[in-house]
Amino acid sequence: MPTLTPDANLARQIPPVLGNVEIRSAGGSGDVYSDLPLQLEHVKSSADCIVCQSNANSRESTARTFIDSGASEHCWAERGDFTSFKEVRGTYGSSAIAGDAGKFEIQGVGTVEFGTRAGGVYRTIRLEGVKYTPSFGHNLISLSALDRRGFMGSWGRGTLSVGKPGGTIILEGVGKGRMYEVQTIEPPTKANSARSHEKAVDIGTWHRRLAHVSIPRILRMASKNLVDGLHIKSKKVLGMCEACLYGKATRRPFDEKVVHETEVLERVHLDLFGPARTRSRGGAEYMMLCTDGGSAMRVPYFLPDKRANTMLKEFHRYRAMVLATVLNY
Asked: What is the pTM of this model?
């Protein structure tokens, strides 16, 4: 496999080749993956079941993650991504750059866990024996370390895939410049920490949190105690909601005469939205809306990207669904 060198356009250069690093307290690199989709843990107590799930503690990794064929070990730039960690002092690695300029400090070793989408399935990836290298600008997943664990890789058409010998893809990188970037998603433990503290806020805040539900409905839910954690500090409404006004605004119809479909599945309209400002916990940034012109039935599909094969796969799902439910195929 040819050596992948860092892209010159990246903000910070990454030493493409790591030298032999000896850390006696840590074992070799190991990689464990799970076929289970990412799911939130079950909330057992009503006190934890909060309507709004936003908190300053919720965060996404700011460092980008790449699959690197030149790195001999996994290297991670962010301390907060480690689920287990052992601090190491006075340990250095070496890159392909000659002399002291090629040295970099390793400040710890541990286990990193993250979610990703590979082969159309959400998977949890756990990398063991990862070196903590804060001087790096990005996270590196070592292709040779994956090879030592028995995984196999293939690349082509801008995608690098890593999988088991049986063919199951567990990790996928998309070409970014001269490297392959992995889309990382918060694991369930981090997504769970986004649950908001039970704190009373005004009715306007609840109106925005609940996707602009009507004020009387929110007050009814609170008065009848239908939702845990719906504590209202002030019921005073300060004017009309600007977002609601824009959403209910109308415009004059188009002048062109349009002949609408009269039969079910006579024509299906596809609308693509995105990218969203905030990525969902499942990793989606786009939405493809399939609308049947005859029945006006709408089915949304949430996508991690807008690549043609991603959209085509979801459209095949839509086609199979309508054949089974509408046409009884």
From this structure: 0.43
